[in-house]
Write a structure and sequence with these properties.
Arc Repressor Mutant, subunit A, Creatine Amidinohydrolase
Length: about 300
Amino acid sequence: MIESYIESGKIASRIRNEASEMIKEGTLVIDLVEYVESEILKSGAQIAFPCNVSINEVAAHYTSPAGDKTTIRAGDMVKLDLGAMIDGYIADTAITIIAGGNIDENYTQDEINLHEEIVEASAAGLEAAIATARAGVEVSKIGASVREAIAEYKLNPIFNLTGHSLEQNNLHAGISIPNYDNHDHYVLEEGQAIAIEPFATNGEGTVNDAPGHYIFSYMANKPFRMRSTQRILKYIQHNNAYVPFSGRWITDEFGERKGSIALKQLSEAMAIYPYAPLREKQGCFVSQKEHTVIIEKEGCTITTI
């Protein structure tokens, strides 16, 4: 088990670092997403969830639909969040990059300085959390360390986003790792795998749903009159029963029309769950940094370093 966590972590880390070099002015988000996902498969791992590329005030849960024309601008705050798994054991990791290029054409120097601080704050929050994480520690203590580190920059964490425990074939295994002291007295145990992911913002620290649904997860087998919808549900059951999937994967496999109709019908019937992109409530910028760790008696092992 530990060996699989370590192996998936090495793969995710390498691909994260390589893909980060693509985050610059003029890059199409879909090219970045498809590069990450194809490299995970080429490495011999499986995709643990669709590659997320969330820009500026969007904190999470954006991945490209088919034909996406979204283009990265110089100075954009780009969050790259990806996951790989070996034998079902998951590595979940994220980084925020300020896109290179002619930044001063899009942002003032004061804005650039602020954006750099926001990125530094989430990184500091992650460092503080990792330094706190060990067997016997309450998860609220990790959250308190995150908030304290981010507060040093006079910024806020995202209060309604959390890290999470990981288990085989289970991305969100029931334990939340908060980004502030939420008074959760759950105590971490040796051998547990958790993803710690502080988000920092110059806003109030709350995210709301934004329009659109691009990521889904399987919920239940249900009957449908349309043969194409029933066939697509069976495909999802076979290929994505345990981890989230991209709507783009479905439309690429079955065509835009049939795929889109099926995703709508399946979502309405709660056969699948649709995830909306998450946007900072005040429209302020958000950064994220994330590692997967294995809890030990005197600390933790970072699998995605």
